[in-house]
Design a protein that fits this description.
The structure holds three protein chains of three kinds.
Chain A lengths: L3 H37 L11 H5 L3 H34 L4 H16 L3 H11 L4 H8 L15 H25 L3 H9 L4 H29 L3 H7 L6 H11 L5 H30 L4
Chain B lengths: L1 E12 L2 E12 L3 E5 L6 H9 L6 E6 L2 E2 L10 E4 L11 H11 L4 H14 L15 H14 L4 E5 L7 H18 L2 E6 L2 H7 L2 E6 L2 E6 L1 H6 L4 H6 L4 E9 L4 E4 L2 E4 L13 E6 L14 E12 L3 E8 L2 E8 L12 E6 L5 E3 L2
Parallel strand pairs in B: 3-8, 3-9, 6-7, 7-8
Antiparallel strand pairs in B: 1-2, 1-4, 4-5, 9-10, 11-12, 11-14, 12-13, 14-19, 15-16, 15-18, 16-17
Helix pairs in contact in B: 2-3, 2-4, 3-4
Chain C lengths: L1 H29 L10 H8 L1 H34 L5 H13 L2 H11 L12 H30 L2 H10 L4 H12 L1 H17 L2 H5 L5 H11 L3 H33 L1
Helix pairs in contact in C: 1-12, 3-6, 3-9, 4-6, 6-9, 7-8, 9-12
Adenosine-5'-triphosphate (ATP) binds next to helix 1 of chain B.
Chain lengths: 290, 354, 262
Amino acid sequence: MAATQPLLNRRLITDWLGIAPFAIFAVMFLIAPTVYLVSGAFVDPNGNLTLQNLIDLFQPNILAAYVISIKISAASAIGGAIIGFALAAAISLGGLPSWVRSAVLTFCGVASNFAGVPLAFAFLATLGRLGLLTIVLRDVFGFNLYGAGFNLLSFLGLTLTYMYFQIPLMVLIITPALDGLKREWSEAASVLGATSWQYWRMVVIPILWPSVFGTLLLLFANAFGAVATAVALTGSSLNIVPIVLFAQIRGDVLHNPNLGYAVAFGMVVITGISNFIYIWLRMRAERWQK
Amino acid sequence: MSYLELSHVQKSFGIVKVVHDFNMSINEGEFVSFLGPSGCGKTTVLRMIAGFESVTGGTITIGGVNQNGLKPNKRNIGMVFQAYALFPNMTVAENVAFGLKVAGTSKAEIEDRVKEMLDLISLGHLADRYPYQMSGGQQQRVALARALANKPKVLLLDEPLSALDAKIRVSLREEIRLIQRKLGITTIFVTHDQEEALSISDRIVVMNAGIADQIGTPSDIYNRPATRFVAGFVGTLNILEAKVENREAATVRVAGRSINIPPANLNGAGDGAAITVALRPEALSLSKTPSSDVALDGRVTSVNFLGSVIRTRMDVEGQQVSFDMFNNPGLQPPQIGEIATAHFKASDVLVIPN
Amino acid sequence: MTAKKFWSWLAVFVAAFYFIVPLLATLEFSMRMRRGTYSFDAYRSVFADDRFASTFSYSVVMALITIVVGALLIVPTAYWVRLRMPYLRPVVEFVTLLPLVVPAIVIIFGYLRLYNSSSWLPLTNTDMGANALLVFGFMTMSLPYMYRAVDTAMRTIDVAVLTEAAESLGASWPTILFRCIFPNVLTGVLSGAFITFAIAVGEFTMPSLLNRPAFGPYLALIGANKAYEPPALAMIAFAMTWVSIILINITTRLQKGAAGAR
Ligand SMILES: Nc1ncnc2c1ncn2[C@@H]1O[C@H](COP(=O)(O)OP(=O)(O)OP(=O)(O)O)[C@@H](O)[C@H]1O
Ligand SMILES: [Mg+2]
């Protein structure tokens, strides 16, 4: 016993030494920064524990930023999920030629990564005041988009823009789930007398809803954390959370560093909750896919 | 009278003709197997009966009603798939209840019927399990109960046993046959396992490349194959080339000797005609028995121990002949390379129409 | 049957309209620079700007450093966890998924507070320090993708058997790691690398807040000051994304082929 004890310890030490670089990296550049901000959200400038920062999040302009951010994220997530689901169902179940499927999937791979500043440029060139679609609508169809109240730098404009990466993301995540629906299930349902609506209601929707709802939450978190597109599209004219935080980091526009931490904390809470529900629902969904 | 009638049924996928001219009538309560190699169109015929594929030509009638153009959900047919195809989000009981539920049956009635069906397959105690918590054999029994719950007019089974292991395969096929007899339901059973087809069917359809080569009882199919394909596919026949020596005396020359066969077996082939004859492995034996009158000498090329029987293959003047003998621990099996003599009765020789 | 096909085609066409129109509009806009006629002047102007080349090459260099450092950190870690500490896998996986939960802007905010000029480790004081922070930031962002790609590649080879075989031949640890493990998970590293590259080259938030002369902030600057160059840059960025996705597809196909051949 006495002889084996140090040996065991040495093995344990090498084990931990092997993982030390990763552990140090994770602590220094992922966990510590997050913990620093989160804990900063709970103290006042003098270092006393307080909930005042969180309460201050509910002051009108910050609350408004959260509300509009949540609205844009939710709208682009729901729109992206619905359209993405329709597109995924079309290529997975619609009996289209296989080249359509691979073309759509490849394009979705590209478009889901085509975010940030260039995406903002693309939509400015499309739906900006001088964008092609704006001009075509005005000159060819006689419809004045901006006269009708549209603005790219608004809830609707931002939602439309975000959907450009939301829809492809939905397609990429949900297509495998749709492919997992066996052809025999629909055939079994139909010989048993079910209409296709009954099949969808009793079999497909119960099987798919965790994946669909989970992906919806992922899309929501994805939009909520998107900074670059918003900044490049709107400068700082639109009051949404990522832009408020960006401005706060740049120049303490809230005049209270701890309130800034609280804004960041709020972001982590929202994206965190949606991601955790996403992961939980995914595990639920995988129960069927033995 | 015939209940399920397929007449001149054809199916093409694009320019490829998969089912040629399929004719058959099945009686009410009959158990018919479709037997044939992979890709011969068994599933396609079944799917046309179920309504998943439309017929390119011909008609399918059930109980006198033309089914052409009728949607699958209007045909009241039960179907069991190779991969079980249970709904993964429903328990066993919910799966069995599915067809009744979509038909709008009352709750109490559904409950009774589900219980009855689960008792039929003796899985009443697993009613609340989900499919992923059950073995393949159990899942397939549930699939059978689900297919039968609506009292379908016809039950279709597409290779229901081929995903299961050998032991379960045998016991489940007997269970299926038992239930079928009990309910008296008209059944088509697709398989490419000839033993399966022979053991449980009233009649067998041997299919080859989209055509029904022979339709007959298991003993017909096995003992009197109508074509060379059927002879080769059902059982492991020894096929030998032969020549008619004398038509009147019914003598043919096989493997260098001339033998007398029952004249009726000749099917009218003339003198000197080249014919094909077949011998079942079990028709040959190493020992000379009183009834055997023909002997074949050959060199043993392989000996396979299959448990209850030993299958020996030998080379008789360039033609391969294999035969089975019962395993007998007291006897030395033939050795590879030795010269052996196999005996058979001339009356066991089958002449295959070319 | 035909109704299903009709709706499917309709969905594909509507989606194609939504996705292709912005690309066409961007292309059209980018060619409007010369009055009255279409030209590639905007592209010429983009490529003539020194800052385009300098910021782009800066971002590419940072991305490459991120890939190399990231691979050197993640491959041995994934290997070690699989071989020696399988009980730590859930923890490590959880940590590698965290960057999906914590937005990049929050992470970089934390860096700026922890490693600023008045902190115990004033990385932001020097260019080198800030570059290092940027690399670590990129590594964090790519962690979920990189780790998963490498770990999946490792699952297809049996790490323990490979190690024992090498050990029985008398190989040392570095030899095992660099001569046996790395080449075998190369396709995983590569597909992780392309994603990292795509993330890092266009990233705006991190370099912008760290005041780094990177491509993302340059794009934003051009966007704020020019009219025709931004759509040209968007087209260039789209083309680059397309190329990296094709490269990812090729490597994953190679990876599948390699796994299938085993
Ligand atoms: N939807 C389809 N489109 C085109 N060809 C098809 C289609 N379905 C079946 N076939 C072709 O029709 C032929 C018969 O197929 P079928 O599935 O009926 O064979 P099978 O006898 O059931 O074979 P197995 O024993 O392998 O199940 C095959 O050559 C197959 O390739
Ligand atoms: Mg088949």
